[in-house]
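Slide 14.
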Amino acid sequence: MTDWADVIEANGSTPANVRRLVGQLRACEAAAIAFCRLLERWGRGDAVPATPGARRAAFRHAADRVETALAGLDTPLSAYLVELEPDRAEGRSWYGGPGAGELVEWRPVLERAGVTACPNRTAAVYLELAVLVRALQGLEDAARLEAVPDRSSLWAGLFDLRDTLLGATVDDLRALAA
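Slide 15: predicted structure.
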């Protein structure tokens, strides 16, 4: 196994559902990276797009793209979790929470960019999306090192991601995209 998708595929029962889940996780990962990189560029002072109006539109578009990707994740992820049927009642999650380097005060960044958005919602979304990207990367690293989590730990981690992403994060993204 060399990819996080290989781990998902190796533990799935229904190939069609596994394909849907992997495709949707890839869409979530791409959208999350784009959202985070947009904010990170602004944090470094890179004012692209060039005008405040275009930056506001880019921010709303990036938030909407992530929200759309996450909205499509619920059904395939829920079905996969049912199929996974962990051996134990619950394993432990295989990824960590946000690191200190991800705690950023986004208010001055948003103000400099000319984007009127709630900095608290922005920070919360950024953190949760960074955790998603790091979790998938960690699963990929585990696959390459042949140290993949067992089925119950895979279930626990995916359940935690679903619980976090499909709750407050989606609500925050909707507010940011509005």
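Speaker note: The chain has a mean pLDDT of 91.
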